[in-house]
Write a structure and sequence with these properties.
The structure holds three protein chains of three kinds. Chain A is an alpha/beta fold. Chain A is built from eleven helices and twelve strands. Chain A has a six-stranded parallel β-sheet with strand order 2-1-3-4-5-11, sandwiched between helices. In chain A, α1 crosses α2 (62-76) and α2 (62-76) packs parallel to α10 (295-307). The radius of gyration of chain A is 21 Å and the shape is elongated. Chain A starts with a helix and ends in a 5-residue tail after the last helix. By secondary structure, chain B is mainly alpha-helical. Chain B has one domain (51-322): Orthogonal Bundle (ABC transporter involved in vitamin B12 uptake, BtuC), CATH 1.10.3470. Chain B starts with a helix and ends in a 10-residue tail after the last helix. In chain C, β16 and β17 (326-327) form a beta hairpin. By secondary structure, chain C is α/β, with parallel strands linked by helices. In chain C, α4 (124-137) packs across α5 and α13 packs across α14. The longest helix of chain C has 16 residues, at 184-199. The chains are: A alpha/beta, B mainly alpha, C alpha/beta. At the A-B interface, α1, α2, β7, α7 and α8 of A face α3, α4, α5, α6 and α7 of B.
Chain lengths: 344, 334, 513
């Protein structure tokens, strides 16, 4: 018995590493392929050696894991770029300390996804004052002087996209007074509130409203738990929007366990697993609205341009713009083939 | 000679209600009252959905994994300790039993792995506390941080989907109309009750938690008992991990988040005293069900989560206050 | 030796106690205490363990309120609601266990609770000055004000405690066995300080077991016995024999069961050269089956530690314990229990009982596996066995389902003895078996112990009450400062001799004078 258990544990651990390596490779390589060609076009041949400092929260979430992985994969494609990743720890205070150390080392550019934009604004400003351009990812600093470039997703736009997809489908089906549910993420985050606002406003343009709203915590457990209860609260549903594909694993599990399939569901963020399910078309999940972590790869490319004092190739301006906002796109069975490479 | 009898005589006159024999009943009565009140609120506020068999089974299913952990926690607390690592051990067991290689051994292999990982980690807790002389709070706090870290490392921050059908279907399967997960919870509760009330292990647990020095001087191996208690808690975490995995159809290092607080809260409102030596399995069961019912009620009525947490906090304080009004309890010293 | 003789004081009474009574459930701890303390004198309280000294201190310091009688302080009848009230009135108590905060500094401890302050801010300078003044008054201005008290030696801590009393302008200082924690030269320093305080007009109530100290420091002596004042205001020069006489002579002749005529034979327990550094050394003795061996000694003489070491609850530094000629594994309670030893420890509630559990579970605790099949307790069998034991010990109430907490002290002790009886114990170790047990119940316990011995159980008994040891035991060992200094058959030794041996040999000197 003990021999069996030891072998079992050993293989389990070893395989975890291998599995992770494989998924890491596939997703990042595929993500990188379509972007590689334009990057080389605009930047030309390798220039002087560049050091890019990078910091993102170390949370147990697929999207955040992809942020770091995509940045690293992108940096590998430029031989002259060294990506210096600093551990951001578990909260804003730890990240602040890590960034301050990083500033002392004077990298050429810093790419940072802060735990909380407001709490790290002063640190961003300090880096800028030290002459280090800062690329602010996703969660915006509260002071414009704290970053050189802001790249972020569109939370409000996600809600709008999900609302329009659901609205169109239900209108086409001729459903009157549909029962629509929303499974939000962590409720006290501004991004959750933005998503919900977009969803609500888009739906209202069809004369629809959200009848049930629950909030999970971006984790599988919480997704499963709130959905199981939600399905009890609503014996019949027409549509569900789930803000986050990570918690969506639990949401779908709860739906399967309840044996419910009378409604359509839209996901959020755009994980690879969600896209595979959309492609297979054998679950209630019919679409997902993207909030892509590929922004970190783009940030590395922009950092390289900034360090070399160049602008984006096809644009007229000589330098990189101050702000870039990714559009939230709707991935359905029809276009999933184009996006599946970008799934995380 | 007669003065001996007279010394105890005044206490003999007290009614059954104040007598010791009724104490477990009295302890759980408050909580049963809360549960009844919640049911009434449910019937009034969501008449169509609350009292359906589907919803009742849903509540019990949601309570099952955390319930199993709370039973293990109850033993640890009665034994005079505390286990802060249960949430992290659940995550570690869940991640370890859903690695690709472990899944290759099928559902049985996954169950075995989850149980072994939980038990081994729990045993480490116990050894650190009993032989390393660490305070339980510190030892299990360290385990909480460390095990969560290890889980994150093993999973490489990825969600590990389960491809083993027997596990994926576990959460849907029913026996005689009752979900298997609920049956597991019921089974663990029954076994927990028997072990606590009918076995030498249970007696030793109460003795070690109630008065460790007395237990030691009565020839009980206090250290071994302590190790066994934490191993038991770890075993419960391993079983709960499999239940969580079955529900989510996936393993992730984010699973079991804050379960330690839920489990401790359930045990405490169930009448288990943090000083050890006293507690009931049934009380913890009720505690878990009360919390799960609150969550269910809030979602049925489409209410925001923050209010739910306020209500939960109020119930913890209220339940403990009610217990403290028990007349003769204050004699327990330290 | 008699410095006190040259400072005769006959000032006005500062404190007078008349007919003070204090009862606890089952015990009349104070039963008519008379005490007069004058300004500027050192007044000694003398009495055996259980004579009521501790209760008296607690009444004086406001921790207990008397049930009857009168306390007059500075001419006014008073009743202190709590220790703070007594302190405000000018009575400070220095306990054996010093009540200092180890992590706070000397100055902070001295001024604790009455720090000089302005608008909530402590004036540190003023605090240090006040602390320094108090220490200087005691002749110890050299104690560093900023050092955490926990890092000072015991003697210095005691001085800090006294300085605290002075800083509160105490008029009377109660000191409970202050010399117990001190080395010899530190004691003489303490006496110098006490004399200086006396000369400053402060009254000192001094409690000690050591007769020679009393001669050195005291002006007058009050003797307590069984909660009653048997002699008040004796001069310190009173012959020792008379003092001891006032402390002894309790009428307990009916209490003890008669000894069997036969001499116990055989050997059950043999202890050889057992030593634990700093607690006891080189203890060797035997206990035979059916024999009761008593150990007499003061608290701190190492007797409880010796008993716990025999039982394996402490690991000896040297020596060994043999049962039936076989060595016990040192430091293992389990081994001792297997060999047939059972301990009824000194602190019944904190060391022996599960107060919230039924009597049945308490009795069954040491023999769980005996009434279990495959780990399941056979509750019926256990209950039957526990009930049988309860019958044999005449436990009241007899119901073994009651919680241990609801029983009287004597019956709780029976539960502990019953635990070992059920476990088949052949050698019972009893540590202060009658502490907190009232007189009637004591007699029953003695009867129980004797009848166990008649059934062949060996008993090793420790008690600080000399009459108990003499009355119950067949053979007596006297311990002083960690050593067994005397051994005798119980019939061949009397209370005076034992008390004298226990209290460091002053009786023989005193008698010779």
């Amino acid at each position: 018995m003990s021999a069996l258990s030891r072998r079992n544990l050993f293989f389990g651990g070893a395989a975890a590493g291998v599995g992770a390596l494989m998924t890491g490779c596939t997703s990042n390589n595929q993500a990188a392929v379509p972007a590689t060609a334009p990057a080389q076009q605009s930047s030309g041949k390798p220039g002087k050696p560049i050091t890019i400092g990078f910091s993102a929260p170390a949370a147990d979430h697929g999207w955040l894991a992809a942020i770091t992985a995509d940045a690293q994969a992108r940096a590998k494609q430029y031989p002259e770029v060294t990506l210096k990743t600093v551990e951001a720890g578990q909260d804003a205070t730890a990240q602040r300390a890590a960034l301050q150390t990083l500033i002392q080392e004077k990298p050429d550019v810093i790419v940072v996804l802060p735990f909380d934009g407001a709490q790290l604004t002063a640190t961003g400003r300090a880096a800028m004052q030290a002459g280090i351009p800062v690329i602010n990812l996703d969660r915006q600093f509260s002071d414009e002087l704290a970053f050189r470039v802001l790249i972020r997703g569109d939370n409000y736009g996600m809600g709008v996209a999900a609302g329009h997809f659901i609205g169109e489908r239900l209108k086409t089906a001729g459903t009157s007074a549909p029962v629509i549910a929303e499974i939000a993420g962590i409720d006290n985050l501004p991004l959750t509130q933005d998503r919900s606002r977009g969803f609500k406003e888009a739906l209202s343009s069809y004369g629809f409203k959200v009848s049930h709203r629950v909030a999970a915590e971006f984790t599988i457990d919480s997704g499963q738990k709130v959905t199981a209860n939600l399905l009890q609260a609503a014996p019949k549903l027409d549509a569900v929007w789930n803000h986050d594909d990570d918690q969506g694993v639990g949401v779908l599990a709860a739906i399967n366990q309840a044996g419910r399939k009378e409604f359509l569901m839209v996901g959020g963020a755009g994980s690879r697993k969600a896209m595979e399910q959309i492609r297979a078309d054998n679950t209630v999940l019919k679409a997902t609205v993207t909030y892509s972590p590929t922004m970190s790869g783009s940030a590395v490319s922009l950092a390289r341009l900034i360090a070399n004092g160049r602008g984006i190739g096809d644009l007229v301006e000589l330098t990189v713009p101050k702000e870039i906002r990714l559009a939230s796109e709707t991935v359905t069975k029809d276009n999933v083939a184009d996006y599946i490479g970008l799934g995380f | 000679m007669t003065d001996l009898a007279s010394a105890a005589a005044p206490k003999m006159k007290t009614s059954w209600w104040r007598d010791d024999a009724s104490e477990p009943v009295r302890r759980n009565l408050g909580l049963t009252g809360v549960l009844v009140a919640l049911v009434v609120i449910g019937l009034v506020s969501a008449p169509d959905t609350f009292a359906t068999s589907g919803n009742v089974l849903n509540i019990l299913t949601q309570a099952s994994a955390i319930g199993v952990i709370a039973i293990g926690m109850t033993f640890v607390i009665i034994g005079g300790g505390i286990d802060l690592s249960v949430g992290a051990l659940t995550a570690l067991s869940a991640v370890w039993c859903t690695t690709v290689a472990t899944q290759g051994f099928g559902g049985g292999g996954m169950l075995f792995t989850a149980l072994v990982v939980g038990t081994v980690a729990g045993t480490i807790n116990g050894v650190l506390i009993a032989y390393g002389r660490l305070v339980p709070f510190i030892a299990t706090l360290a385990m909480m941080v460390g095990a969560r870290g290890l889980a994150t490392k093993i999973s490489n921050k990825q969600t590990q989907p389960v491809n083993v059908e027997s596990i994926n279907r576990l959460a849907e399967n029913k026996l005689l109309g009752i979900p298997v997960l609920v049956l597991i919870f019921a089974g663990v509760t029954a076994v927990g009750w028997v072990v606590l009330n009918r076995t030498t292990f249970g007696r030793r647990t109460v003795a070690v938690g109630g008065n460790a020095e007395a237990a030691r001087l009565a020839g009980i191996n206090v250290r071994r008992q302590t190790v066994l208690l934490y191993a038991l808690s770890g075993l419960c975490c391993g079983l709960a991990a499999l239940m969580v995995v079955a529900q989510a159809n996936a393993g992730s290092s984010s699973q079991g988040d804050l379960y330690e607080l839920d489990a401790i809260a359930a045990a405490i409102i169930g009448g288990t005293t943090l000083t050890g030596g006293r507690g009931t399995v049934i009380g913890s069961l009720l505690g878990v069900v009360v919390f799960t019912t609150i969550t269910n009620l809030f979602i049925l009525n489409n209410l925001p989560t923050e209010v739910q947490n306020i209500v939960k906090g109020a119930i913890i304080v209220g339940a403990v206050l009610v217990q403290q009004f028990q007349p003769r309890d204050l004699f327990r010293k330290r | 030796m008699t410095d006190s003789a040259d400072t005769p004081v006959d000032g006005p009474p500062l404190l007078t106690l008349t007919e003070v009574v204090k009862t606890f459930p089952g015990v009349r701890a104070l039963d008519g205490v008379e005490l007069t303390v004058r300004q500027g004198e050192v007044h000694c309280l003398l009495g055996q363990n259980g004579a009521g000294k501790s209760t008296l201190i607690k009444v004086l310091s406001g921790a207990h309120r008397p049930d009857a009688g009168q306390i007059t302080w500075q001419g006014r009848s008073v009743s202190f609601a709590d220790p703070q009230a007594a302190m405000r009135a000018g009575i400070a108590t220095i306990y054996q266990e010093l009540d200092l905060v180890p992590d706070m500094t000397v100055a902070e401890n001295i001024l604790l609770g009455h720090e000089p302050r302005t608008a909530g801010f402590v004036r540190r300078g003023a605090m240090r000055a006040a602390a320094h003044t108090a220490l200087t008054r005691l002749g110890h201005g050299e104690i560093p004000l900023g050092r955490p008290v926990g890092r000072l030696p015991a003697a210095a801590q005691q001085i800090v405690s006294m300085a605290r009393a002075l800083s509160r302008e105490a008029r009377m200082l109660i000191m409970d066995e202050p010399s117990a924690v001190l080395a010899h030269d530190e004691v003489s320093n303490l006496f110098r300080i006490i004399r200086e305080l006396r000369d400053q007009g402060i009254a000192v109530v001094y409690i000690s077991h050591r007769l020679e100290e009393i001669r050195q420091i005291c002006d007058r002596v009050t003797v307590l016995q069984d909660g009653r004042t048997t002699a008040a205001d004796l001069p310190a020069t009173t012959p020792t024999a008379e003092l001891v006489g006032r402390m002894t002579g309790r009428t307990l002749e009916h209490v003890f069961p008669p000894r069997p005529p036969r001499a116990p034979s055989g050997e059950l327990l043999r202890v050889e050269g057992l030593t634990r550094h700093g607690e006891f050394s080189d203890a060797s003795f035997t206990v035979g089956p059916g024999e009761i061996v008593g150990i007499a000694g003061l608290v701190g003489s190492g007797r409880s530690e010796l008993l716990e070491t025999v039982f394996g609850a402490r690991r000896p530094d040297a020596g060994h314990v043999l049962v039936d000629g076989r060595r016990l594994k040192p430091g293992s309670v389990a081994a001792a229990v297997r060999a047939g030893l059972g301990l009824a420890p000194e602190e019944r509630k904190s060391q022996a009982l599960l107060l919230g559990e039924p009597v049945q579970n308490n009795i069954g605790l040491a023999s769980l596996s005996r009434h279990a099949t495959a780990g399941f307790v056979r509750r019926g069998a256990e209950r039957a066995a526990a009930t049988e034991v309860a019958d044999r010990l005449e436990l009241r109430p007899q119901d073994v389902g009651r919680r241990a907490r609801t029983l009287s002290g004597g019956n709780q002790q029976k539960v502990v003895v019953g635990r070992w009886l059920l476990g088949g114990t052949r050698l019972l170790l009893l540590d202060e078996p009658t502490r907190g047990v009232d007189v009637g119940a004591r007699a029953e316990l003695y009867q129980v112990v004797r009848s166990l011995a008649e059934d062949g159980v060996g008993v090793l008994l420790v008690s600080s009450e000399v009459p108990e040891v003499l009355g119950l035991a067949d053979r007596v060992l006297v311990m002083r400062e960690g050593r067994i200094v005397h051994e005798a058959r119980a019939e061949e030794i009397d209370e005076h001799t034992v008390l004298d041996l226990v209290m460091a040999g002053s009786l023989l000197e005193g008698a010779a004078q």
